[in-house]
From TrEMBL, chains A, B:
Superkingdom classification of source: Archaea
Record-linked SUPFAM superfamilies: GAF domain-like (SSF55781), Winged helix' DNA-binding domain (SSF46785)
Stretches that traverse the bilayer: none
Signal peptide residue numbers: none
Keywords: DNA-binding, Transcription, Transcription regulation
Entry keyword NADP: no
Record-annotated HTH iclR-type domain positions: 9-68
Residues in IclR-ED domain copies: 69-253
Protein name: IclR family transcriptional regulator
Taxonomic source organism: Haloterrigena salina JCM 13891
Entry keyword annotation includes DNA-binding: yes
Database matches in InterPro entries: GAF-like_dom_sf, HTH_MetabolicPath_Reg, Tscrpt_reg_IclR_C, Tscrpt_reg_IclR_N, WH-like_DNA-bd_sf, WH_DNA-bd_sf
Record GO biological process: negative regulation of DNA-templated transcription
Length: 254, 254
DNA sequence: AACTTTGGTTCAAAATTGTGAAACGAAGGC
DNA sequence: GCCTTCGTTTCACAATTTTGAACCAAAGTT
């Protein structure tokens, strides 16, 4: 399952390289993109004007930006899953009661994407937002998903994306991760103790279909100061389990 | 300002035609897409496998779907504007107090896209969601924006997109629209009395930068039965004005 | 169990297009 | 008024995309 296109369309690749450059540069002109990607200006100009014509890019003055039209595609991808609609009300409830940050993550191509997040009154401000992609091995959410994926799939993912260290506490060893995932499977809950963001703790539970396939994972996260051992290991997990049960039931009958 | 690319990249156009086909067909195989677009199967296959390799499309079994990765691009486009972050808390407040549906729309390429919406407890269920694109002339939100765009820009937009009728009450005449927009400018509020969705009424106010450029529009909508004349024309407008004032102030100082 | 259908994948030749250097033009800074 | 920067245009050629036919694999039918 190494998805290598036999006859790849080079222009399609270039198109997305240019769009990604626009994201990275947070809007840019023809020359800036050309320099960034080491392509001829005239060529980049052709791509950008085509993208603008197609309404996927906007030109303000002389700089180009990624268009909100992508929200249409992104929202379609998100709404395609029942998960989003069904999980949202449960998540809102938890955020309201606990005051912390509640997250929903799904996996695609071996990486995680936040598809919904809701902040309670006391919630921390963190870097991630809807649409952010993360490595699976360094978040509680990701580990909850990995733990319920077939083992060969997990190997594939590690081979493809590696186990880069994000903080000092990130798991970077293949065997250590394997053991951790076994614990997660047994306990039904995954933890993240400052493995992705310093000072941030997090517990997550997987959400599975009635056939046993993981659809995503749900988490609650907050500052280490407030999320002490008992709350992290008892209170929050039971909340998560209750919520994921409801979600799983509702997904089965929808 | 007719954005016609001089040397368009045909492959870029094809790439997006295929992605749009995937949306329309709600996931499809190679043959289905090829038939839909009248392209050779082998060609479509090349595009889809390239898109999958780039992680913008997912293959489940033998059908392809638009990938959640587009949410990354879409969210970037949304977060680029301060508007989204600043309007959200105000909108949440209104939804909570009024119990109706609150919407935020922005314009790009002459069309509107919902970038946030929040439903109060009694809110109606409507077709639109975040990411949905609509014609500007048939919603209160769109008219609020059109009214504050330079006149030549409005002409351009009408020429480009026309004034298609969506319900019996949609404005389809150029001059009638012009008059309506003058009223909106004077009153500061735009209305929609079942012009886009039967049984749905709506009032909207524009949100402008301190330089006078429209950034978007805010609306409250509900069923005709509940949104009677006085509420539509007095109560809701004053709520909207209060909220847009706060938003405009916060945008200026951020 | 053989046959048919359906749909995905591969291949190589033919047709078109993307590429890239250079020149041009417009805008802004010095 | 000159110089710099950056976007836009042009054009010839190399390179890519496009095609249809052939090939497979899986599912459905007789």
């Amino acid at each position: 399952m190494s998805p290598t296109a036999r006859n790849p369309i080079k222009s399609t690749r270039t198109t997305f390289r240019i769009l990604e450059a626009l994201v990275e540069l947070d809007g840019a002109g023809v020359t800036a993109v050309a320099d960034h990607l080491d392509l001829p200006k005239s060529n980049v100009h052709n791509y950008l004007s085509t993208l603008e014509e197609a309404e996927y890019v906007v030109k303000r003055g002389t700089t180009f930006h990624v268009g909100i039209r992508f929200l249409e595609l992104g929202a379609h991808a998100r709404n395609r899953r029942d998960l989003y609609d069904i999980a949202r009300p449960e998540m809102d409830k938890i955020a309201d009661e606990e005051g912390e940050l509640v997250n929903l993550l799904v996996e695609e191509h071996g990486r995680g994407t936040y598809i919904y997040r809701v902040a309670g009154d006391d919630a921390v401000q963190v870097d991630a937002h809807v649409g952010t992609r993360v490595h699976l091995h360094c978040t509680a959410l990701g580990k909850a998903i990995l733990a319920h994926l077939p083992e060969e799939r997990v190997d594939e993912i590690i081979t493809r994306h590696g186990l880069p260290a994000v903080t000092d506490d990130t798991i970077t060893d293949r065997d250590e991760l394997r053991e951790t995932l076994a614990d997660v499977r047994e306990r039904g809950i995954a933890f993240d103790r400052e493995e992705r963001v310093e000072g941030l703790r997090c517990a997550a539970a997987p959400i599975c279909s009635n056939t046993g396939r993981v659809l995503g994972a749900l988490s609650i996260s907050g500052p280490t100061t407030r999320i002490q051992d008992e709350r992290l290991e008892e209170e929050i997990p039971s909340l998560l389990e209750r919520a994921t049960n409801v979600i799983e039931l509702n997904i089965t009958y929808s």
